[in-house]
Amino acid sequence: EHNIILQRTKGLESPIFCLKATVKQARGILGKDVSGFSDPYCLLGIETKKPGSSGHGSTPQENKKRAKAVVKNLIPEDQTHRTQVIPQTLNPLWNETFILEFKDIENARFHLDMWDFDEVESVRHKLGELSDLHGLKRIFKDARKDKGQHDFLGNVVLHVQDLHCREDRWHNLEPRTETYPNRGQCRLQFLLMHKRRATTASKTQPSYTVHRHLLQQLVSYEILQHQDGSTSWDGELSKLANTILYLHASQKDLSNFHQDMAKWLAYSKLYLILEFNSNCLLHQITSIEYQWMQGRLKPEQKAELAESFQSLLAYGISLIQRYRIVFPLSAPNSTQRLQSLLRLLVQICKMKAFRELCTVTPDLQQMMTEALKSGTIEWFQMKKQHLKPMVKTMEECGKALVSLVIEVNADLQQCHRIWNKYFSNTMRLDLFSIAYLELQGLVSCYVKEELIKMDSGMSHLTAESLFQLYLNLQELHRMKEFLCNRC
Predict the structure, then answer these.
(1) 112 neighbors 188 (Cβ within 8 angstroms)
(2) Phi/psi of residue 392, each to 5°?
(3) Dist. CA 41–CA 85, nearest whole Å
(4) How many CB atoms lie within 10 A of CB 124?
C-alpha cells in the first residue's frame, strides 16, 4: 500500500518551488560617497540555467565568471527584486522579504548584488560634503564615470540546493575584482517552500488545516505505539514525526503561532477521547498566549479555537467531577496528573485569547465547586448501590451500613491528607469542606432511613454492627474540626 501511494505521489505535477528571502541588514560595507558613506540598495533574484550549463556540473572558471556577473545581466527584469535605498550609512538595515519562484532546484542559484545609489549632483554640492583626501579622490573618480552610474559594493551567490530548509546567517560580500576584497557582510534569511501541490488535500483545504490533520494522525500513531499506556505519554513525537511536521510547516510557510495553534487543536481534540499527560497542552496554550494577536486569525479559525477552549474546559471539569475514579491513588502519578489538569483549566480561563473569543467567561471556581458537589453525590450513590446486600436481612443491612460509613470516612481522610492541597494551591478551593458537607448530609439521611427499618428484636450480630456504626459516625463527626472557617 505504501509503494502504491508513493508511486501515485511521484506521478503528480511538480510543485512551484519558492525561496522566501529576507534581506535583513549589512555591516561594514564600503563607503563610496564623498562623505565616506554609501546609499546602499540590493538587487536579487534566482538564476536558473539548463542542466549542464551551470551549477555543480560547470567548470570552476565558468562558475567564477557567473559569480562575478551582476544580477541585471543574468536575470530578467520582471524576475529581479529590489530593496529600498538606505541613505548615508555603512550598516544598513532593511528587513525586506521577497518570494522568488523557480522550478529546477538543482540548477537554481540565488544572486544578490549590493549597489551604492548615486544621484546626479553638482561638483559644488559634492565639495560641500568633502571631509578628507579620500573624498577628493572620489570626486575625480565620479567625474570619469557616466552620470547616474551606481557603484558596485559586493555580491552574494549561493546554490539554492545547498541551503537548509530554514537559514539565517551572515554572508561575506564578494568583490568582482581584487580591489577592496573586504567589503563587509550581509545578513540573509532563507526559507524553502512551495506554492502549489497537486494533492487533493492541498487543492481543497488551507495549508494550516492540512498541517493540523497531519499532526493529529502522527499523535494518534504515537500513542498507539506507547507501550506503557497513554497516561504515561509526555506528548513528545518521534524524531521522524517532528522532521515531517517541520518540513511541511517550512514548505507551507506556516508561522510559529499557527503551528502552536495547530498543535493545540490536534492535541486538545485527542484529549477528549484519550487521556494523556496534560502538561503538553499547558505548554501549547502558554505559547499561544505569548504570541496572541487576534488579527492573525480568520473568522473560522477564531470559532474553531473558541470551541476547543470550551470543549476542553467542559471535559476537564467532568474529569474533576469524577476525580476519585479518573485519578485513583492506586494508579501511578495520579496526583501529578490531577494537578496538571487543574493548572491547565486555570490557565485557559486566564488567557487573553479565551476572554476575547469566548463571549461568556465562566466563574471557574463556581463551576468547579458545583462539579465537586455533584461528583461527591454520584460517588456516594454508587458506593451505596455497590454495598447494598443481595439478601436484605437485618444483619446484612447493618453490615452494609457500617461498610458505607467506613468508605465515607476513608474518602474524607484522603481528601484532607492528599487531594485538598492540590485544589487549594491551584484553585483556592477547599475540597475537604465541600466533600464533608455533602457526605455528612447524605450519611445522616441514609442512616436514619435504615435505622427506621430495624425493629427492637434484633440479633446480637445486628447490635454489634450498630455499635460499629456508632464508632464510625463518631469518627465522621470528629473530622468536622477540619472544616474551613468560612463553611
Answers:
(1) yes
(2) -90, 65
(3) 5
(4) 7
CB atoms within 10 A of CB 8: 10
- Grid cell listed for 162: 545547498
pLDDT value for 68: 64
| Euclidean distance between CA atoms 14 and 415, whole angstroms | 62
DSSP state of 480: G
In the block, cell 435505622 appears at 451
Cβ atoms of residues 285 and 264 within 8 Å: yes
Q: Which helix (H) or strand (E) holds 7?
A: helix 2-10
What per-residue confidence (pLDDT) applies to 150?
Answer: 86
The Cα–Cα gap between 150 and 179 comes to: 17
CB atoms within 10 A of CB 295: 4
* Angle CA 235–275–301, to nearest 5: 70
Longest dimension (CA), the chain: 129
* Contact status, residue 193 vs residue 251, Cβ threshold 8 Å: yes
Asked whether 35 and 94 are in contact (CB, 8 A), the reply is no
Q: CB of 27 within 8 A of CB of 182?
A: no
Task: Decide: helix, strand or coil at residue 158.
Answer: strand
Grouped pLDDT means (10 residues each) for the chain, 487 residues? 72 78 94 88 87 52 61 87 94 93 87 87 52 55 59 92 84 84 91 66 70 87 69 78 85 83 89 82 89 80 92 94 93 89 94 87 90 96 90 84 94 94 93 94 91 75 86 92 71
Give residue 222's pLDDT: 80
Burial of 342 (0-12, 13-18, 19+ CB in 10 A): buried
Q: Within a 10 A sphere around the Cβ of 448, how many other Cβ atoms?
A: 9
The Cα–Cα gap between 434 and 419 comes to 12
